[in-house]
Amino acid sequence: MEEKKPRNKTKNLLKSLSKQETDRLGIEVERLIKKEMAYIVNYYVCNYQTSVRDTFGWDREDLLQHIREIMWKALATYNPEKKVKVTTYLSSILYYQMGNL
């Protein structure tokens, strides 16, 4: 008997997004990086820049792109009904994802 693989809700959600929704998320990520989350993003860039260069060969822009991708996926799964600020939600996701890097 074949074992069922658990469904990846995030992956399915991301595949279901329309072009307009993905563009809106990208614009929102850029706004957050420049305003509300600028300190946190710069913190991760400064603290991980050397290690990702040595490990993966990434430069600063590669690391920023990775952070953008994490934030984009997190915004796609953000649920405002849980009454958590979007910046708090994104900060916790970044903390765990960057720790796994």
What does this structure look like?
The structure is a single chain. The N and C termini lie far apart (35 Å). Helix content is 75%, strand content 0%. The mean pLDDT is 88. Helix 3 crosses helix 4 and helix 4 packs across helix 5. The protein is mainly alpha-helical.
Keywords:
single chain, 101 residues, mainly alpha, 5 helices
Largest sheet: none
**Arithmetic mean of pLDDT:** 88
List the total number of helices: 5
Shape annotation: globular
As residue ranges, the low-confidence spans are none
Number of strands: 0
Class of secondary structure makeup: mainly alpha
Computed Rg: 15 Å
- How helix-rich are the residues, as a percent range? over 70%
Q: What is the ordering of alpha helices and beta strands?
A: HHHHH
State the separation between the terminal residues, measured CA to CA.
35 Å
* Beta strand %: under 5%
What's this entry about, in short?
This protein has 101 residues and is mostly helical. The chain has helices at residues 9-16, 19-34, 38-56, 60-77, 86-100.
Secondary structure blueprint with pairings:
Blueprint: H1 9-16, H2 19-34, H3 38-56, H4 60-77, H5 86-100
Helix pairs in contact: 2-4, 3-4, 4-5
